[in-house]
Amino acid sequence: MRTVGELLRRWRHRRGLSQLDLSIAADVSARHVSLVETGRSRPSADMVIRLAEQLDVPLRERNRLLLAAGFAPRYPERPLDGDALPAAREAVERVLRAHEPYPALVVDRRWDIVLTNHAVAPFLARVAPELLRPPVNMVRLGLDPRGLAPFIVNLAEVRSLLRVRISRQLAVAPDPGLAALHEELLAPGGAEVVHRAGSEVATPMIFRFDGRELRLFSTVTTFGTPLDITLEEVSIESYYPADAETAAYFTGLDL
Fold first, then answer.
1. What is the CATH number of domain 86-251?
2. Hey, what's the torsion of the CAs at 223, 224, 229, 230, to 10 degrees?
3. DSSP summary character for residue 227
4. Domain boundaries, the chain
5. Does residue 235 contact residue 106 with C-beta atoms inside 8 Å?
6. How far apart are CA 90 and CA 199, in angstroms?
7. What is the pLDDT of residues 18-74, one digit of tens each?
8. What pTM, to 2 d.p., does this model score?
9. H/E run at residue 92
10. CATH fold of 4-68, please?
11. Are strands 113-116 and 235-241 parallel, antiparallel or unpaired?
12. Which helix (H) or strand (E) holds 221?
């Protein structure tokens, strides 16, 4: 097991900071940072948290730092779809319902789907049943040939966008499960796609169902200043129509 000093040094290197940079940001001496990293000084729990905050260490990894320093974890991890976070769950469900008739869903750090609104159902009805066995992964639904991939007109572009997003996630906080998903479905191969300029808002996902093209762009919503691991790691993916024809299709759905 790595020491807290070794873990802090890895996070500092990952953020591209010197010991002096970190010491100034955390309002401690550079010597103290050095002593902590080399194991010659045992930091208090509050010092571990202070350094982790300046390094933008995710809550899950802050617990790991605390354990390595000999302290109990501070940040709980409770399922959003359980009964432990009723206010947060109600807030998320309100957002999902309010977004109808357009699709919206909640995903965790590995892009597993936690909650959806009713407008997602027509999309899930088109994928193979084996892809709907929990945990249902949004990236796999989109890129697997048994999923939505055959219906996505600009599949290479969508894959490229997902590759960029997940690569950024891994750069911020490495995760073995997410890395495995990236290797399975998003490993670079062939010519890279250059994203098109000129879209009014963002690069759309273009679906073709029954001869009709649906153009959607997405936004991402996260919780501000969460103190629970689950709340820090979930995001709401909301999809909007990119043209009048797509808007008309969704407003005509019987939800």
1. 3.30.450.180
2. -10
3. S
4. 4-68, 86-251
5. yes
6. 34
7. 999 999 999 999 999 999 999 999 999 999 999 999 999 999 999 999 999 999 999
8. 0.89
9. helix 86-99
10. 434 Repressor (Amino-terminal Domain) (1.10.260)
11. unpaired
12. strand 212-222
